[in-house]
Design a protein that fits this description.
It catalyses: beta-D-fructose 6-phosphate + ATP = beta-D-fructose 1,6-bisphosphate + ADP + H(+). The protein is α/β, with parallel strands linked by helices. The protein contains 16 helices and 19 strands. The chain is elongated, with a radius of gyration of 25 Å. It binds adenosine-5'-triphosphate (ATP), 6-O-phosphono-beta-D-fructofuranose and magnesium ion (MG).
Length: 514
Amino acid sequence: MSIISKKYSLGDIKLITENNKVKNPIMGIPAASEPKVATGDHGYVLEDVPHFTDYIPNLPTYPNPLQDNPAYAVVKQYFVDTDDTVAQQIVVHVDSPRGTHFRRAGPRQKVYFKSDDVHACIVTCGGLCPGLNTVIREIVGSLHDMYGVTRIEGIEGGYRGFYSRNTIQLTPKVTNGIHKRGGTIIGTSRGGYDNQKIVNSIEDRGINQVYIIGGDGTQKGAAAIYEEVRRRGLKIAVVGIPKTIDNDIPIIDKSFGFDTAVEEAQRAINAAHVEAESNENCIGLVKLMGRDSGFIAMYATLASRDVDCCLIPESPFYLEGPGGLFEYIERRIKENGHMVIVVAEGAGQDLVAESRTAGGKDASGNKVLDDIGLWLSQKIKGHFKKKTDMELNLKYIDPTYMIRAVPSNASDNIYCTLLAQSAVHGAMSGYTGFTVGPVHGRECYLPFYRITEKQNKVVITDRMWARMLSSTNQPSFLNTKDIIESNIDEAPPTQLLDDQVADKTVVTKETTVC
Ligand SMILES: Nc1ncnc2c1ncn2[C@@H]1O[C@H](COP(=O)(O)OP(=O)(O)OP(=O)(O)O)[C@@H](O)[C@H]1O
Ligand SMILES: O=P(O)(O)OC[C@H]1O[C@](O)(CO)[C@@H](O)[C@@H]1O
Ligand SMILES: [Mg+2]
């Protein structure tokens, strides 16, 4: 089987199931819901993605048409070696096991589809994000220009579009230039997920490659679509492309659109700073997106250097008393005459809860948050009116939707291009039930469960948060107990950190890391 490196004998590499039962990779095919994990010498672990050959026997293969493409023919070793994998951890110690690896993305020598037989579709789900149109454009371009595929459809309006809307024909002509526009030309939505209706629609339309662009909720839905497709024994590649402006998807370096969002947030922070500087005793308060993760707020703050306080969901804070937010604001205004505060929308929700107005869930089941920006504005104004003789000026700027409605910037456009090309190469090569993304700058195929099992969060015991604190000079609002109870116990995330801790678990050849 292709998951087994040819360099190892079967005795050296074992396919492991979730229950730690070792299966002979030739005799036993893991059930769909079981992770496909192989181990090798020195603690090498491959968390692989499914392939058609796992559940459909005797499939024909074809030479990859890219070998005749003049643009790629000159590139030496253009095709990815089937044994290439990418390490999850790159900071290691001399005695570290080799650790977890993911399959490297890219074109393979053999493909599992004839170009004329491919019938692809693309769907975008969840909130908007800069770069959605670029990914759509580049999937269409990659399928058409690299593999000669001509039947590509856009599913309108998210998951529910599979069973309730007509499709849009996507061609290079239709998608040309869309990367310069924000939003998604095929529309998006929350809710409306019906697994059976979606798979029925895919099957009825004769679609055999499904590209699903969306966040954590969308990827959970994509995983379930893959399971159903596999249960029905269909040769349909189900491919996820992770999208989240909040950068809360684990494993991958960062998500597309995040850079653009941080850049766009600078405009709001600059405006807040101009207002604050020009008016007496003035606070410029900016609310940015980030339901559960404060990456946009943290990176926008670090980039700007004009921010005096950044509040995120991961770092609890309090208003009154010594070491609290009000005390810090009073000091800062006395010293400087003005200040800028950036608050992520999910910050301080425990405080707002006392006077909750929102509540409930959206169509996808996400918690509807109270407006922390408005709440904080009122609290700060109220405090200064009551407790000080200072006339306080507060300018509240809420650019939330503006930072995600813009087109993607240059670096995100390139990022989206690599994602789309990797996704198409993966599907053409027979991989399915996977999502794609960069791990330490290398595009990888990742099993769905690895990116949906938890959310990526800012680690407040990490050096990046310390850099942020030292740039604003704000108090940490934490005591030792808070720090101990914070995410310190969790495995170190991979995103945007420069001090990853090497996995020191001693892993022997027979040990599983699932
Ligand atoms: N656990 C789940 N299983 C199947 N489908 C889901 C699940 N969670 C969400 N979905 C569906 O996925 C789609 C998008 O979900 P959601 O609105 O939560 O956005 P998302 O993909 O998480 O993106 P983001 O939150 O970054 O905007 C919706 O159609 C929703 O019904
Ligand atoms: O108002 P909508 O469209 O549901 O989107 C808001 C949510 O989308 C996100 O940007 C995630 O996509 C969150 O940060 C935010 O809470
Ligand atoms: Mg989500």
